[in-house]
Amino acid sequence: MSQLGWRVYATNHHTGHLGLEQAVEAYRDEYLVERNFSRLKGHPLSLAPLYVQRDDHRVGLVRLLTIALRVLTVLEGVVRQQLQAQQEELAGLFVGNPKRRTAQPTAERLLETFRDITLTIVSAPGFAQRHVTPLSALQQQILARCGFSAAVYGRFADDS
Fold it and tell me: Which helix (H) or strand (E) holds 79?
């Protein structure tokens, strides 16, 4: 059947409760558990075969990476919900195609926009100066979608 371009959808809802178009939309927008396992095993978390001497190290690493996976999932979900509620899309997330827009950005693409941020601290006896890279408009949009104020970011460096 896949060679003919057809897909088979099955549901336990009655057609009066869930029509064909609604069922297809629900299927396409479903939360995919497999995607999280892929994230956990590959990039960006990279839970790969490794040698540890103690079992508690293995357990600790898996727990830490599971927390990181939850953070990625929540970040992605919050931004997508905000974009959907405001019926907006983000542009500038795709390298090489800055005008391409999306209403369903991945957490990896969102975090990638913050890659070039640096915090520089110059310390001397009785003196400390800090400078942080200014936020771009896209980075400010992402922080706003997450519910964070850009002012919080500015507190990292009072001398910027």
Answer: helix 55-85
